[in-house]
Design a protein that fits this description.
single chain, 51% helix, two-stranded antiparallel ribbon, 1% strand, 19 helices, mainly alpha
């Protein structure tokens, strides 16, 4: 009974999502085109339409759309819990997230009060300061405690390993090894094992050949399986686009142009926050300063994009609101600010910067970043019990020899200061598969 209710509700949500998409109208037009063929008998209409979809590639586009829905919409148990429980099941983490959001808004409002400026206006960048920095967020996470947790010692005493004292259920080492089996040390990886003097060229050529077949198939799940062993540099941008189900058409181009027009016609305080962040981060970075203009072409339209609000259905956070002057607290006079619901912080531009190496067209870069943010990046600055990555543990393992020799906090900080030379795959292999 429960499973059937889940399936029925899930299918209804899927159909509603498809019917509201441009793909649905495109499929209808394609079906009408197949039906109008003179050599198609009435009894063969259904089969003829299905064959036409396969021959024209529409079946793959439909499969990719369903696959994308499955990745971004998880099945909800029956009976359905309250929406806030779906977003974050642990009450004390929900409260911590709410307190963090209030702190962010207080910081933003305090700056507006000090400078005597409204939210809808640009200001001199020298007057602007970041609303918060990653270290502020880390301090909040460090301070979170589960009121129901007791380890048998004195009340309120936490003795778990690490500075984050939040007891969460995580996968054991054997389950992680199984989940990341494609990254095992005995498995070759693009970007790692294609640089050897003897077999590197052969491995790279084979991966490129296989990558061409994957791209020709145009199927998101297949691309994702291929990417588990890395993508050849020449195909990475295309493979990632397929995984994210990004195929731009005239409607996408028009939407992006409308966002840019909105940037030109309406000044927002967050524009200044974004300009300031780019100046403080990417512009001062030897690897990313050349992409300054690209970053503005992505970040400014992103702040106006109301499509981003959809990710809050999966996010423990809630979009911030602003009220018309004199109507504070009256919901009918409330508006989400900024329009995408995301207040930028110090370092936000660095979410986009690495992608600039792959996409040389601002519009493609924009849609790739938007999809990555709505699927993955938002979790990097939200308080949640959602499963997290193991990279931090791997870094400590990789630098453990030097860390064990240090005798002061400053020395330890120096050991971990520059991580740009570290490669992610070897770190994961070291953390999971080394003995």
């Amino acid at each position: 009974m429960g499973e059937s209710n889940i399936s029925q509700s899930y299918m209804q949500a899927l159909m509603q999502e498809l019917r509201s998409s441009k793909l649905y109208s495109d499929l209808l037009l394609a079906a009408q085109s197949e039906i109008s063929k003179t050599n198609l008998r009435l009894a063969d209409v259904k089969k003829g339409v299905q064959t036409g979809f396969v021959n024209s590639g529409w079946d793959k586009k439909l499969k990719n759309a369903i696959y994308k829905f499955m990745l971004t919409h998880h099945k909800i148990p029956y009976p359905q819990p309250p929406s806030d429980h779906v977003k974050e099941p642990l009450q004390y983490l929900r409260k911590a997230q709410q307190a963090w959001e209030k702190r962010i808004l207080k910081s933003l409002n305090s700056m507006c009060t000090e400078l005597n400026i409204p939210l809808a206006r640009k200001v001199n960048l020298s007057q602007i300061r970041p609303v918060y920095a990653p270290k502020d967020f880390l301090d909040v996470i460090i301070g979170i405690q589960n009121p129901n947790y007791h380890n048998g010692d004195s009340q309120g005493f936490y003795s778990m390993w690490g500075i984050v004292q939040v007891p969460l259920k995580v996968k054991g080492i054997n389950k992680l090894r199984l989940q990341y089996s494609e990254m095992s040390i005995n498995q070759c990886q693009s970007g790692i094992d294609d640089s050897g003097e003897l077999s590197g060229d052969t491995f790279e050529n084979e991966r490129v050949k296989l990558g061409r077949k994957v791209l020709a198939a145009n199927h998101g799940p297949l691309s994702q399986e291929f990417a588990k062993k890395g993508c050849p540099m020449s195909q990475r941008a295309s493979i990632w686009s397929q995984i994210l189900s990004i195929e731009l058409d005239e409607v996408d181009q028009l939407y992006y142009e409308q966002l840019k027009v909105s940037v030109q016609h309406h000044d927002l305080l967050v524009d200044s926050l974004l300009y300031k962040d780019v100046k403080l981060t990417a512009t001062n970075d030897d690897q990313y300063f050349v992409f300054e203009d690209f970053l503005y072409q992505v970040l400014l339209p992103f702040s106006r994009d109301t499509m981003v609000l959809k990710h809050f259905a999966q996010n423990s956070a809630t979009p911030p609101k602003s009220y018309i002057r004199g109507k504070l607290g009256v919901e009918e006079f409330a508006v989400i600010y900024p329009p995408n619901g995301v207040i930028p912080f110090h370092g936000f531009a660095m979410y986009v910067a690495p992608l600039c190496y792959l996409y040389n067209e601002p519009i493609k870069l924009y849609y790739v970043f938007r999809e990555m943010y709505m699927r993955y990046f938002f979790r990097l600055h939200s308080i949640s019990s959602h499963p997290q990555v193991i990279l931090a543990v791997a870094i400590f393992s990789f630098r453990k020899t030097n860390l064990l020799k240090v005798q002061s906090y400053n020395a330890a900080e120096a050991v971990l200061a520059d991580l740009t030379t570290l490669q992610v795959i070897p770190l994961i292999q070291l953390s999971l598969f080394s003995k």
